[in-house]
Amino acid sequence: MSNPGITAALVGAVLGLTAANASAGPCTSDIAEFEAAIARSQGNPLAGLSAPQSVGADLGHQPTPASVKAAQKKTFAATMARAKRYDAQGNGPGCTRELTAAKRMYIL
Asked: Please, what is the average pLDDT of the chain?
């Protein structure tokens, strides 16, 4: 389930990154469409970040819910930042790869 405060902060951070990159690249419109979908998903309790099971979970370590959410947010933000950086550089394959990875992390 998604925490509204965490989700709102995440959307704000993602949208803030968009404002910093005003030039259009090969996947600027795809990034904008994905960010708009995230914004529209606000209030949907089934929407939000997800992550594959970690090695620590396989070993029986029990992370706290807060540490899991923090790691998910950090990973998602870094992936979106890479997508935007590749987009700004005109690197379509790199941008597409990172955006696809980000889409796998976020359940809409």
From this structure: 83
pLDDT single digits (tens) 72-108: 999 999 999 999 999 999 999 999 999 999 999 999 9
* CA 102/CA 49 separation, integer angstroms: 9
pTM across the whole model? 0.71
Residue pair 86/98 in contact (Cβ under 8 Å)? The answer is yes
**For helices 28-40 and 4-20, angle between their N-to-C axes, nearest 10 degrees:** 160
- 50 vs 33: CA distance, rounded Å: 19
H or E element: which one contains 83? helix 65-89
Domain boundaries defined on the chain:
4-47+66-107
Q: Which spans in 2-64 are helix H?
A: 4-20, 28-40, 55-58
Q: Is 107 helix (H, G, I), strand (E, B) or coil?
A: strand
- Residue pair 29/35 in contact (Cβ under 8 Å)? The answer is no
Residue type for 99, please? L
Q: Of 92, 75, 72, give the one whose Cα is nearest residue 28.
A: 92
